Amino acid sequence: MPVEVIMPKVDMDMAKGRIMAWHVAEGDTVAKGDPLFDIETDKAAFEVEASDAGTVHHLAATETDIAIGTAVAWLYAEGETVGDPSATVQSAAVPEPEEREPSVEAEKPAEPPAPAAPTPDTEKTRATPRARALAREGGLEIAALAGTGPRGRVQAEDVRATIDHAPNAATAAPTSFVPDTGALAITRKEGEGTPLVLIHGFAGDATAWAPLEAHLKGRALIRIDLPSHGKSPKQRIGGFPALVKEVRHAFDALNLEQAHVVGHSLGGAVALALADTRPRKVASLTALAPAGLGPQIDGAALGGICNATRPESLAPWLRTLVVDETLITDAYTRIAFAPRNDPALRAAQAAMADALFPDGVQAFDLRAALQRLEVPARIIWGKRDRIIPWQHALQAPGRVSLHLFEDVGHLPQIEITAEVGKILQSSL
Amino acid sequence: MNAETKIESRELSYAEAIREAMDIALSTDERVVLMGEDIGVYGGAFQVTGDLVEKYGEDRVMDTPISELGGAGVAVGAAMTGLRPIFEFQFSDFATLAMEQIVNQAAKVRYMLGGSVSVPVVMRFPAGSGTGAAAQHSQSLEAWLGHVPGLKVVQPSTPEDAKGLLLAALEDPDPVMIFEHKILYKMKGPVPAGHYITPIGKAAIRREGKDLTIVGTSIMVHKAMAAAETLAEEGIDAEVIDLRSVRPMDRETVLASVRKTGRLLCVYEGVKTLGVGAEVSAMVAESDAFDFLDAPIVRLGGAECPIPYNPELEKAVVPQVPDILDAARKLATGAI
Questions:
Q1: Other residues' Cβ atoms within 10 Å of the Cβ of residue A328
Q2: Is residue B222 flagged as an active site residue?
Q3: Which of A233, A428, B46, B227 pairs with B17 at a CA distance of 20 to 30 A?
């Protein structure tokens, strides 16, 4: 059965996309990953790759608005008969009146199939008032939604499903983001002395350091957003070495004489790897609840944070990060959620989680790196960490300082910000 | 509702509850008189007035001649001159004979005389099908009267409301038309003792639910409740609203429910076209609750024909529980 190539949803606000150019022609054979076409949205342009190998047929017209989720081309496997693709469309969205004659009429075999036609205006879309109201609230365009009601009517449930299931779909198919290239996002604060390079944890971003920064006044700070996090491009990270490679690339590009590297959780593992591979550039290493020192990690929390589509579902997982759950206020949750209100970001992070922590296990091991560490190093950990067991710290060689706190969880920099600040200051 | 005087509650039939209301009114307000055909020694076509004539005498429980227009005219005139008449029609169908008095006089006198006179008349109309009384004795004409500014029109569905709405009607300075369903006369239910009123213009939520709103009137409330029980077993949670008052209509209760459920089913016995449910539907469609609708509004009403004499056909032309079930299921599952 041919595979449909759909107009992807690359950002939250996007209801329609426009094909600017095709990189392939009707009947071309493509390999998986080959660029198919460029799309443009209100915000950006993207290249869309082939999800499978095959022969491309029924290309949609360029320079026309096409609703997301609509098939814009079909990939046929070798030997498959090129037929009428509308017959294979499983989506309920295909309007019956647009059904085409069987393509036995050989006169227009290459014409784009019906599903690629621009969707009708909002006014012409069959939808209930409630569905329209919900779509308005959710910033969705009603014409872009598939209706499951009678005669394809979009009902409230369809809108909710679109809003709710976006991340689930992302988890099931972590390919649903368009990988981007480019350098990792770096933010700096001018200040004195050897700069601190701050590397946040999984599902966080550079802003997570804000509370701690108040205790590092006057110091030069450089914050790196991990790939697919914060303002960094969404990338397909195949594993921990690939992640480190990206960060090291960014670190090298900073061209620093030396830096104090501070990392939290996954960022702690990355910092440790940096210290391991760039020992002369790293003045000191501070790892907060670092990953990479044992297989255990709370996979459910990782998944929960990754997939939360709203503050209400994020908050319970955030609370597992700390001991004093009152720290996770509504405001904190909303702020934490804001950047996550992007299905593509969640999809990219879900894919990264799958690569780094498959089956809820830390698939990379930095214990050897820890043993051979030569730079001055310290590990800060809360003894009530529910995400990664603090006992992993006990494997550190004697020259690494351990700062273990009794009633602290996975976020020492948030839970005991002043203490962490003091430890850092004392070593600079 | 007057809580202080509502001391105890007994099981009474709908007819008994109405009789008790009239008894209380007759005993506590000397302006109250009953008028109607055969309401004296015969006790009324449906035995609602019963033996009240023995208790209050023929001056206060008056048999009127077989002329609805004449009787209604006397009642309207008596109301204008200070009495509180309760006029009983033998069948609501006979309101057609008294339309001049109801529509042109009772409803308009206050307006035309600049508010110097009001018409505090109460009219009772045994209505509806199901008794085998055929085309001229089985209609549901409440929408006719509901169309007339100046009238209030209520449809009690329970013994408690039958009593409370009648006592409320007597306190109202304007004409109040009470449509009593003939099939309900023998229905029993708890009725508070003593004097209390059921406010006119206020609907009652008979069952709370979240999946769809069923707005019913009169006997259809009971059919909707029966349907709701079955629906609940199927996992469909219906909210049942007893409209109680056709004019004025309780907009807020209906809209709030539709905002909650997003689905509206109107069930009424009167002819579907231009009926009470048409007004309920339009009221919702014109309101902010429109944005909460997640399915088309559905109306179940009487068929476009006279009520047949044949008992099977008589059932077939008005909504029955299976009809409500069918419509509610389709609505709640998004199949309409």
A1: 21
A2: no
A3: B227
State both tokens at A183: 């350098």
Closest residue in B to A126 (Cα–Cα): B295
CA distance A91 to A38: 24
Same domain, residue pair B179 and B230: no
- Cβ burial, residue B53 (10 Å; 0-12/13-18/19+): buried
What gap in Å lies between CA B132 and CA B134, rounded to an integer?
A: 6
Residue A307: Cβ-neighbour burial (10 angstroms; 0-12, 13-18, 19+):
buried
Residue B69 sits in the same domain as residue B164: yes
Q: Are residues B85 and B166 located together in one domain of the fold?
A: yes
Residue B213 domain-assigned (yes or no):
yes
Q: What is the pLDDT of residue A378?
A: 95
What pLDDT, in 10s, does the model give residues A372-419?
988 999 999 999 999 999 999 999 999 999 999 999 999 999 999 999
Domain count, chain B: 2
Q: Which of B146, B167, B192 is the last residue of a domain?
A: B192
Is residue B4 pLDDT above 80, yes or no? no
Q: Looking at B16, B68, B239, B279, which residue is catalytic?
A: B68
Chain A residues whose C-beta sits inside 8 Å of any chain B C-beta: 128-133, 148-150, 155-157
Positions of E strands within B39-181: 61-63, 84-88, 122-127, 152-154, 176-181
What would the pLDDT profile of A100-122 be if each residue is shown by its tens digit? 444 444 444 444 444 434 444 44
Which residue in A133, A150, A155 is closest to B291 by CB distance?
A133
Whether B101 and B156 share a structural domain: yes
- State the DSSP H helix or E strand holding residue A46, giving kind and residue range, or none if neither: strand A45-49
In whole numbers, what is the pLDDT of chain A averaged over residues? Answer: 82
Is the distance from CB of B308 to CB of B317 less than 8 angstroms?
Answer: yes
Partner residues linked to A262 by β-bridges: A198, A286
Q: Are residues B293 and B216 in the same domain?
A: yes
A220-262 pLDDT, tens digit per residue, is 999 999 999 988 998 888 889 889 999 999 999 999 999 999 9
Identify which of A130, A155, A157 has the shortest CB distance to residue B292. A130
Q: Are A275 and A373 in contact (CB under 8 A)?
A: yes
CATH code of the domain covering residue B310: 3.40.50.920
Report the C-alpha gap between A405 and A279 in whole angstroms.
28
| Domains contained in chain A, CATH given | 3-116 (2.40.50.100), 122-172 (4.10.320.10), 186-427 (3.40.50.1820)
Domain residues for B279?
204-332
B31 shares its domain with B128: yes
Look at residues B148, B165, B192 and tell me which one is the last residue of a structural domain.
B192
- Nearest Cα residue in chain A from B285: A129
Euclidean distance between CA atoms B14 and B137, whole angstroms: 20
We report the CATH number of the domain holding residue B31 as 3.40.50.970
Among the listed residues B16, B20, B37, B137, the single catalytic one is: B137
- Domain identity same for B230 and B294: yes
How far does A13 lie from chain B, in Å, by closest CA?
22
Give the gap in angstroms from C-alpha B335 to the nearest C-alpha of chain A.
Answer: 6
Q: Which of A93, A152, A123, A136 is nearest to B291 (CA)?
A: A136
The two three-digit tokens of residue B212, written as one number:
């769809």
Which runs of consecutive H residues, i.e. helices, occur in chain B?
14-28, 52-56, 68-80, 99, 109-112, 142-146, 159-171, 219-233, 251-261, 276-285, 311-316, 321-332
Dist. CA B307–CA A155, nearest whole Å:
38
- Based on its alpha-carbon atoms, the radius of gyration of chain B, rounded to whole angstroms, reads 20
Q: Of the candidates B78, B81, B90, which has an alpha carbon nearest to the alpha carbon of residue B48? A: B90
